[in-house]
């Protein structure tokens, strides 16, 4: 169950980052709400995951999901670079997170 909490925590981290980006574009209740809900849910689920998973692994996977998710959302929705080198490094972060799952 800890891994499920951790994956959802990473996904909510991406929601929080999208909210932060929206705040930078237009300060509205919707953007602040998206940011707050994303961050609160992310930290809450990370806390639940860390009850059964090692702290170092949990944090590394959580930040990895957030990093990869944020980069993908940026490329798909915000016109950020889709350079092949960027995609290779995103793949490396993702493979490191999967590697931590396999050894934990």
From TrEMBL:
<dbReference type="InterPro" id="IPR045324">
    <property type="entry name" value="Small_multidrug_res"/>
</dbReference>
<keyword id="KW-1133">Transmembrane helix</keyword>
<keyword id="KW-0813">Transport</keyword>
<keyword id="KW-1003">Cell membrane</keyword>
<feature type="transmembrane region" description="Helical">
    <location>
        <begin position="59"/>
        <end position="78"/>
    </location>
</feature>
<feature type="transmembrane region" description="Helical">
    <location>
        <begin position="84"/>
        <end position="103"/>
    </location>
</feature>
<dbReference type="InterPro" id="IPR000390">
    <property type="entry name" value="Small_drug/metabolite_transptr"/>
</dbReference>
<dbReference type="InterPro" id="IPR037185">
    <property type="entry name" value="EmrE-like"/>
</dbReference>
<keyword id="KW-0812">Transmembrane</keyword>
<protein>
    <submittedName>
        <fullName>Paired small multidrug resistance pump</fullName>
    </submittedName>
</protein>
<keyword id="KW-0472">Membrane</keyword>
<dbReference type="Pfam" id="PF00893">
    <property type="entry name" value="Multi_Drug_Res"/>
</dbReference>
<comment type="similarity">
    <text>Belongs to the drug/metabolite transporter (DMT) superfamily. Small multidrug resistance (SMR) (TC 2.A.7.1) family.</text>
</comment>
<feature type="transmembrane region" description="Helical">
    <location>
        <begin position="32"/>
        <end position="50"/>
    </location>
</feature>
């Amino acid at each position: 169950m800890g891994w499920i909490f951790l994956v959802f925590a990473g996904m909510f981290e991406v929601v929080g980052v999208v909210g932060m980006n929206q705040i930078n574009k237009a300060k509205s209740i919707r953007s602040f709400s998206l940011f707050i809900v994303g961050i609160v849910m992310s930290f809450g689920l990370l806390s639940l995951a860390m009850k059964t998973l090692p702290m170092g692994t949990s944090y590394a996977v959580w930040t990895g999901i957030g990093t990869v998710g944020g980069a993908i959302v940026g490329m798909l929705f915000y016109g950020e670079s889709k350079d092949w080198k960027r995609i290779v490094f995103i793949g490396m972060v993702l493979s490191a997170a999967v590697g931590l799952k396999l050894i934990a």
